[in-house]
Amino acid sequence: MPFEQITVSTTELKRDTANMLLGNSFVGLLMTVFSFSGLVFFFDNASEKVTQLQHQIWIFMMLVSVCRLADALYWKFKLSKLPFEPTAVINRFSIGLYITGAIWGFYSVLFYSTMDTIELAATMIILSAMSGGAGTVLSPSRALVAFYCTALLVPMSICALTDSNGEFFILGILGLVFWIGIFLSALRYNRFFVSTLHLKAKNNKLIEQMRIERSETEKVNQLLLTTNGKLDAANANLEAEVERRTEDLFRLSNRDPLTNLLNRNGFLKHLNQLLDTTKVLHNSLALLFIDLDGFKQVNDSLGHKVGDIVLTEIASRLRNYSEKNQLARWGGDEFVAIIPYATVDTAKAVAHAMRSGVTIPIMANDNQITLDATIGIAMYPEHGESAVDLIQQADLTMYDQKRKQRGSVGVFNETLHEEIKRDQRLCERLRCAIKNGELTVFYQPIIDVKTRSVSSVEALLRWNCDGEMIPPDIFIPLAERSGLMPEIGAWVLNRAIIDLSHWQFADSLCLSVNVSITQLLDDSFVKILDNALSSTPVAPERIYLEVTESVFANNAELVTLRLSELVQRRVKISIDDFGTGYSSLHRLQSMPFDFIKIDRSFVQNSSEESDTIIRATLLMAREFSCKTVAEGIETNEQLEHLAALGADYLQGYYFAKPMSASDFISWYNDNY
Ligand code: C2E
Ligand code: CA
Ligand code: CA
């Protein structure tokens, strides 16, 4: 609040006035006692009566003075410490003073006539001095000054003025002038005193206000300090929490939770960083793509828990051959590893070491499991300069290697590169092959050994790509990889069933259609078959679906389920390329197969060993009540041999190569 606006209450002013009056009253009283006693006892009086009267007045004055002193002391020591009611103090002080003043006035008038010149002058001087002193010490109250000075000076001055002795006239004048002077200066003092009191009171208020404000500020400061402390603590907590979450997030987004290796994301980040420095330093680097062989069977037959144990164990073994953060789980049973500064030879050596690590048998839940790994290697900078390229080349190399020989190590090369490029081009063309009418179904007859008549035909797909015949061994796997197989397979199934329905000349002829694994696993396959069957009058019993033995290596449970759905539709199931896959006898027994097709490699390899396999297959087929088809009969010798061994049906170039539908009709009419 601005200083001018501070208001001071009258009580406060009065309190200060009272304090001031009381403070000065001791000296005043002392002066009164001494000077009054001096006047009474110093000058001799002519009569005993006057002296007696003076003594009585003196006693009265002393009594009054003692009362005033007691009153002053009482206020001073008892009440001044407390905020007291000032009016009473001032009133009592005033009464005391009025009485004192009155005594002085009364004394000067009463004994005026008894004083000699010296005494009169002394009295006048003492009264003037007393008045002078009172002008200052009583200045807080104008009324008191006025009364006291008037009581002391005026009566005696009037006496002097009116004295018959003209010499005292001047003394009277002087007394009155002195009275006026004292009165005027008392007024000035009073004004000064009042304004000083105002200032003091205002100052006190200001100081009090400042004190309050300071204590408020201190309180606020203290509050701010505690709040700051709390905020600091909360901040620290928050920071720790953010750090922990960032770590969690990093782990979740960069690590594989099962093996605790880097995941794709983490690996790619790391590989990119490493490639940056490798580029600058002109170093080399090898990227290994590792795929486990046989893991799917473990997972399918022993369950995911065992699968997880195996993957964790393999991960820890692979760690032995790579530095921290240079090995990652790429997905499923695939791992990737970086070998910095490697040459092709060192990369191969590490890959072989990794393979031997993988092949050590693993014990998981009382099962002894033996796996292998196929590894593809791509080198920086020769085979690719970016992380994505290197991984892709290593992956393709692994894939190619797996086709050639599982459980081996291969290095990316230009031929492979060319193959990949050609595959990519073919794949693009294959997408439009159906629409462009480039696909045709050929038919190869299957002969009944006993009657030597055509029992069925196998539908075999042909692709004429700009006049170039692309073999199915090339484009079927391509269609599988690019996801085109379900669509292409559906087209073949429909086309072949329609063709069969048109062949009125052979109304008991059956039709074999190859069904690949991706078709079989496709949810819409059964519906496609139902539609194809319902669109023609061909009986389902005349349709044989050929699945290769290797389909069981993928998702045995789903494959088994799908096959039983097909059997419910009364189509027949044939196991193709028998002897080249991994199917267990147990699985074969549990599925109601109708035919087993002996792979042509056994038919054409005229060794004891092949014969043993053929005999065993025939025996087993008989046990399972299956018919057998021997593929790849090219010579009469093979025909006789297989017939003698006991095959039920024969198929091969010896009878006929796969033919177009129209060629087949001619061939059939020519021969039967
Ligand atoms: P696959 O099912 O084993 O078909 C028999 C293959 O053996 C055919 O090859 C056929 O031309 C050939 N072949 C038949 N007799 C003889 C012979 O005496 N000597 C020799 N050397 N070969 C003979 P193709 O037509 O090249 O088909 C190759 C493979 O492509 C098929 O093997 C089959 O797995 C697949 N394939 C063909 N068409 C289709 C189809 O429509 N769908 C599916 N999923 N796969 C098909
Ligand atoms: Ca076949
Ligand atoms: Ca076959």
How would you describe this structure to a colleague?
α1 packs antiparallel against α6. An eight-stranded mixed β-barrel has the order 8-9-11-12-13-14-15-16, surrounded by five helices. Strands 2-3-1-6-7 form a five-stranded mixed sheet, sandwiched between helices. Strands 4-5 form a two-stranded antiparallel ribbon. β2 and β3 form a beta hairpin. It folds into three domains: 204 residues, no CATH class; 158 residues, Alpha-Beta Plaits (2-Layer Sandwich), CATH 3.30.70.270; 235 residues, EAL domain (TIM Barrel). It is of the alpha/beta class and 672 residues long. It binds ligand C2E and calcium ion (CA) (2 copies).
Distance between the termini: 127 Å
Determine and state the CATH class of the largest domain.
Alpha Beta
CATH topology of the largest domain: TIM Barrel
Q: What is the CATH superfamily label of the largest domain?
A: EAL domain
Distinct ligands: ligand C2E, calcium ion
Extract low-pLDDT stretches.
Answer: none
Q: How many strand elements? A: 16
Largest sheet: 8 strands, mixed, barrel
Return the domain count: 3
Mean pLDDT: 90
- What is the rounded Rg? 65 Å
CATH architecture of the largest domain: Alpha-Beta Barrel
Name the beta content range: 5-15%
User: Structural class of the helices, strands and pairings?
Assistant: alpha/beta
Residue share in helices?
Answer: 55-70%
- Placed side by side, the strands forming the largest sheet appear as 8-9-11-12-13-14-15-16
The shape is: rod-shaped
What's the total helix number? 22
